[in-house]
Amino acid sequence: MAENPPAAGAADDEVIDLAGVSVVREGRHLLRDVDWRVLRHEDWVVLGPNGAGKTTMLQVASTYLTPSRGTVRLFGRRHGAVDVRRLRSRVGYAGMGPASLVRETLPAVEIVVTGKHASFVDSRWHDYTDADWDRARANLERLTAGALADRPFGRLSAGERQRVLIARSLMTEPELLLLDEATTGLDLGARERMVGSLSELALDPDGPACVLVTHHVEEIPAGFDHIIMLAGGEVVAHGPISDTLTEAALSACFGAALRLEHRNGRFRAWSPDAGRAGTC
Fold first, then answer.
1. Dist CA 238 CA 244 (whole Å)
2. pLDDT given at position 181
3. I need a surface site. Which of 35, 170, 174, 267 has the fewest CB within 10 A?
4. Global pTM?
């Protein structure tokens, strides 16, 4: 397929541009008329309740799901008018889905190095240089998981597995990193370690633009500076976190009266009727 030029006037630092995107399945809107633009220097949180359309939007942004309506551009190029393999090589993805494809007997470092070819087969099926193996170990260190390098994936905890998969997604040195509920299923200690790692990644000036899907404000890492809030497949609010994540917007997003506080770079939310539970 011939590659189309970037759209006229498209900014050089544009990473994601969704315009009027809707996804309809069996007559139901999973997304409705979503507009969303991400720039290279931004790190975004995608927040909303279960069923809000968060994962669907990430699948659209990664080009693995074609919307029913609207246009999708990655790096200034329109999905459908360019070879998507050229776009996907610039995007890293980590979430619960990829974990189900891993051969659990493989050591963590081998899981990571196979990210170079977007493959979950063992490393015997591709050629890797010493530099590739060094990068795989360095990526594990970057996620505070260096000690896991030689441990079989099947013997790792949920939090350790997530760090390995994120390290794997960094093997191609992506310009965009999509993280689908990276803290799901983690206990409190593992969650906080993961949040700390993601914060360091977001604050790295040489790191990729990051997009993190979550339904808990407590899981928003320091350093993430923008947010898009979804409910029922529609955008409730989006923009800089400091202006957008308010009690009114959060309450509208989750359909309940909620209180919100921001302290030491982290958020807490609770229902005044149920006591300070921090459940959103």
1. 6
2. 85
3. 35
4. 0.85
| Residue 27 in tokens | 């007559």
Give residue 80's pLDDT.
78
Sign of CA dihedral 259, 257, 46, 228: negative
For residue 93, what are the β-bridge partners?
178
Dmax (CA) for the chain in angstroms is: 59
The position carrying tokens 């990473």 is: 15
Residues 209 and 38: their CA atoms lie apart, in Å, by 8
pLDDT tens per residue across span 226-279: 999 999 999 999 999 999 999 999 999 999 999 999 998 899 999 987 654 445
pLDDT number for residue 4: 47
Phi-psi region of 264 (alpha: psi -120 to 50; beta: other; left: phi over 0): left
Q: What are phi and psi for residue 16, nearest 5 degrees? A: -125, 140
213 forms beta bridges with 46, 180
List the structure tokens of 200.
């360091």
Q: Would you state the structure tokens that stand for residue 244, as one six-digit string?
A: 């957008």
Between strands 69-74 and 44-47, the pairing is unpaired
Quick one: which H or E segment has residue 158? helix 158-169
CA angle at 117 for the pair 111 and 121, rounded to the nearest 5°: 45
